[in-house]
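Hey,

Quick one before I head out. I ran the complex with fructose -6-phosphate overnight. Inputs first:
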Amino acid sequence: MNIIVTANYEVLSETAANRIAEVIKNKPNAVLGLATGSTPIGLYKKLVTYNKENLIDFSRVTTFNLDEYIGIPASHTQSYRYFMDYHLFNHINIDYQKTHVPNGMAKDIQAECEAYDEMLRGHGGIDIQVLGIGNNGHIGFNEPGSALTVGTHVTELAQGTIEANSRFFSTREEVPTQAITMGIGDIMKAREVILLASGITKADIISRLLEDKIDTYIPASLLQAHPHVTVIVDQLAGQLI
Ligand code: F6R
């Protein structure tokens, strides 16, 4: 794994945006794997700016998001579809039909998961996958456990994840307890991965990600077996490495 420690969150966001710009320049119909959460907001802001400055053309780009809560509609301000529209898709020249987020309201969730993987395969897989990391080492919503799932699946959110995400909801009870997430196999098949982490609360998990052995109890550690991963952190998240 390559590691880049940047001076601050602004530079972290710019570094990630520059890499994505390069990928799209080399392959205008690139497939991007995208994440939500607070970490990539700065990256999406930069991508919007680059698009406005005509430095990136998204017209032929396809996107697949990692995950979505089960049980809240796309119109809910905390749904990941809403997040992506708000921070990125509404502001760039992407064909909205080419943006994919799992449907957490699907009647048949199992069929939704299978269709998502089928669609990913149909597009030839992901060229570059953006990841954040949970304090517990989760990527997407692949939570720590004795076994990890390969494809897109339904997952129960860990208590710590519900706790962490409750900052976006008015009460803890409102936080969904289940989500659809791409599996570890989907992420590992991406041709390139950039994992972003910012702030002191991520310092411990970043040092464990880089230094511990591969362990299903730190799902992100599986990335050690991926041939093209860049971990981009700011000073605070990189403090213990
Ligand atoms: C979001 C996702 C999660 C987040 C992680 C970090 O789509 O898949 O794995 O990347 O929970 O979240 P933040 O960036 O809010 O610390």
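Helices lie at 9-26, 41-52, 80-87, 109-122, 159-165, 184-189, 203-211.

Talk tomorrow,
K.
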